[in-house]
Design goal:
Blueprint: H1 8-14, H2 16-19, H3 28-38, H4 43-66, H5 70-87, H6 98-116, E1 125-129, E2 132-139, E3 149-155, H7 162-175, E4 179-183, H8 189-193, H9 204-214, E5 220-230, H10 233-241, E6 249-253, H11 261-269, H12 274-277, H13 285-296, H14 299-313, H15 318-325, E7 341-346, H16 355-361, E8 366-371, H17 386-400
Parallel strand pairs: 3-4, 3-5, 5-6, 6-7, 7-8
Antiparallel strand pairs: 1-2, 2-4
Helix pairs in contact: 3-4, 4-5, 4-6, 5-6, 7-17, 9-10
Length: 403
């Protein structure tokens, strides 16, 4: 039994919505009602319960809008977007499940309707990127939409999408006087789901393009552009900043210096030598098979690697995934980060264990913030206490970018 959902696997996704309660993404009773509707059901029941709740909210939003209640309609559309987004993560993988696409399109439609009711109106944007384009929104600082202000660029990770960035950080930042640019890049959101474009390790090419786009807006102060990445964004954002000198402040939540390193200990556990584990893509087949059996034996890990990572990286086997993972490293690049940098480390987050080593390797002005279970912020990305995370991060950023 998880926090709310009977199935721990489902609870890992379903409890996300609780973290967005302070920012208009849900109310507790609504999330609990979804959990009760799922009961001991399977992934299909999980999906159906979230979508049904999203439909109810979206329908109520339409009624409110028709009656002239714009504020109510906006709030309802936002919650609907979040509920649709919560529905489909267990369905990840190739071939892409049509239910995932259907819920994602409802999610974005509801989000766009909500932002269109903002004051001032916020419209969806596209950032050209090679032969494709990245979806984006420029969210103005509350009450200061026409002022030239600092910009906070928010960068996703492996499986969150653009609407998660809104609830997780953008609402808090805009209330503190920052313009925010949220986007999904290669391997994320619409670029993965609908364009089939995989993740790439050279994230500086993405951030270069995003910053080029951002500085064309007169309301953006080009000397005060911050970049923040959460989850796998704790690698992507530092990698981007290491090749983009216009980034004047960097946040990594948590700091992730390598995608491959967490697998090296497993490879050694299953028979690889230290030397062999240094190049995971060339592991002995016997070791690789043992590692694959281990992954298959744990539902969460199987989802993380075989359903999610294979799809996100555009591969179909473990060896090719591990070869790809070796390219996602900050080795030899930490000294290229010159701006003030904030790293986070949550007490119970296994992905954050490398944060102190990452911190030690930086040569720029740097800060390491630790979050604990006693504060309700000890898990990955401080998901159950985003209010505390945002307060501390934005306090730090206020000091880096004084008014």
């Amino acid at each position: 039994m998880g926090l709310l959902f009977q199935n721990d696997f489902h609870d890992g996704f379903g409890s996300w919505a609780l973290g967005y309660i302070p920012y208009g993404g849900a109310d507790f009773g609504e999330v609990r009602a979804v959990a009760l509707a799922v009961g001991d059901g399977d992934d299909g029941a999980f999906y159906a319960a979230w979508v049904a709740a999203g439909d109810r909210l979206a329908d109520e939003a339409e009624v409110a809008l028709a009656r002239g209640h714009r504020a109510s309609a906006r709030a309802l559309f936002l919650r609907a977007a979040n509920f649709y987004a919560a529905a489909y993560h267990p369905l990840y993988g190739v071939p892409v499940d049509p239910r995932l696409i259907a819920a994602f399109r409802k999610q974005i439609a509801a989000f766009d309707k909500a932002l269109a009711l903002s004051e001032p109106e916020i419209r969806p944007l596209r950032i050209p990127f090679g032969d494709a384009s990245m979806p984006a929104y420029l969210l103005p600082a509350r009450g200061r939409a026409d002022e030239t202000r600092p910009l906070l660029i928010l960068n996703n990770g492996y499986d969150a999408t653009i609407t998660d960035l809104y609830f997780a950080s953008a609402v808090a930042a805009t209330e503190r006087g920052y313009h925010c640019l949220i986007f999904d890049g290669p391997g994320q959101g619409a670029m993965l789901y609908e364009q089939g474009i995989p993740l790439r390790p050279d994230w500086e090419t993405v951030i270069n393009t995003v910053v080029d786009f951002a500085v064309t807006w007169p309301i953006v102060d080009p000397a005060r552009i911050a970049l923040s990445g959460w989850s796998l964004g704790g690698y992507l954002a530092p990698r981007g900043a290491s090749g983009e000198p216009r980034i004047a402040a960097l946040i990594a939540d948590p700091a992730l210096p390598s995608m491959a390193d967490p697998f090296r200990g497993l490879a050694i556990r299953f028979g690889a030598s230290n030397e062999a584990a240094a190049n995971l893509g060339e592991l002995d087949q016997t070791v690789l098979e043992r590692l694959e059996q281990f992954i298959d034996g744990d539902r969460r890990m199987r989802w993380s690697i075989k359903q999610r990572a294979f799809w996100v990286h555009g591969v179909d086997n473990l060896r090719d995934y591990l070869r790809q993972a070796e390219f996602y490293t900050m080795r030899g690049r930490l000294d290229r980060i010159r701006c003030p940098t904030l790293l986070t480390q949550a007490e119970n987050d296994r992905l954050a264990t490398a944060a102190p080593a990452f911190f030690d390797g930086l040569t720029c002005p740097k800060t390491l913030l630790r979050f604990t279970a006693a504060e309700g912020a000890g898990d990955h990305c401080e998901m159950m206490n985003r209010s505390l995370l945002n307060q501390r991060v934005l306090d730090w950023l206020d000091e880096v970018f004084p008014a």
